[in-house]
Write a structure and sequence with these properties.
By secondary structure, this protein is mainly α. It is built from 14 helices and 2 strands. It has a two-stranded antiparallel sheet.
């Protein structure tokens, strides 16, 4: 399924005129990402008994939004990170202005992909609404706003921090899973799937907090130690390293139980969750 995602992304970008901005998009979008969100979507479709090919356009839109968010997050005015996906960040190679445009292009293109897909009109409307809400002012953008706010203002509790993790990371993971329900008209499962996605986001972010103090840049393929250098609050502000590891394991255990409750036909999405739990970077 990963090869199909890569092929779709390459074919989509081939439609655009060559430019420095397109080159910057290709630099960040193609090749090195884990494709976690697209693969969660396609795995869930297969577990529901549907053809994963049904979700390829949505998978591409998910990866466009994920990569846009990473390019913008790395900018000096945001998280100011110089290394991403095993290579220098987009703005380091292309400059801040082009990196900003590349991120804008990917966000816009995500909606173009859905709008020009072969899905039924109501499915398109539902998908566009979901993507806009989760990527918008009450979603990923609010999460990044809180991340910036917490640099200067103290975070009083773990629950505040987890809210930011829900928005920055959980929102798009929830979108991936809910999109499967939209595509196959399983509206009754949407709330359940969103809950799974948000829990995945919390576990994923706490894992990243652990990696930031236990891994090297070479192991992770991105900058490490930057949170401590900027005095940023992380989960390790509120719990020990061992407690953080227990939180991750416990959260993934809850996710497994939620998946059992869905009574899916196959186990591909379970395997994706196991991959996330055991990931080393």
């Amino acid at each position: 399924m990963r090869a199909q995602i890569e092929e779709q992304l390459n074919e989509f970008l081939a439609l655009y005129e060559d430019s420095k901005t397109k080159e910057a998009v290709e630099y960040s979008l193609l090749g090195n990402g884990k494709r976690v969100r697209p693969l969660l979507l396609l795995s869930l479709l297969r577990d529901y008994g549907a053809d994963p090919a049904l979700g390829l356009d949505v998978a591409m839109a998910l990866e466009l939004i994920q990569t846009y968010s990473l390019v913008h997050d790395d900018l000096p005015c945001m998280d100011d990170d110089d290394f991403r996906r095993g290579k220098p960040s987009n703005h380091v190679v292309f400059g801040e202005a082009t990196a900003l445009l590349a991120g804008d292009a990917m966000l816009t293109s995500a909606f173009e992909v859905i709008a020009t897909s072969n899905y039924q009109p109501q499915v398109k409307v539902d998908l566009v609404s979901l993507f806009a809400q989760r990527a918008g002012l009450n979603g990923m953008i609010l999460g990044q706003s809180l991340d910036l706010k917490f640099i200067d203002e103290p975070v009083d509790s773990l629950s505040e921090l987890l809210k930011m993790y829900d928005l920055k990371t959980g929102a798009l993971l929830a979108t991936a899973l809910e999109s499967a329900a939209i595509l196959i008209d399983r509206q009754q499962d949407r709330e359940h799937l969103a809950n799974i996605g948000y829990k995945c986001g919390r576990a994923f972010q706490v894992q990243d907090d652990i990696f930031d103090v236990t891994k090297t840049q070479e192991e992770l393929g991105k900058s490490v130690g930057s949170d401590a250098a900027k005095n940023k609050v992380t989960a390790l502000t509120f719990m020990s390293l061992e407690e953080a590891r227990e939180f991750v394991a416990s959260t993934y255990g809850e996710i497994r139980q939620h998946l059992v409750d869905l009574k899916l036909a196959n186990r591909e999405v379970y395997e994706m969750i196991e991959y996330l739990m055991s990931r080393k970077s």
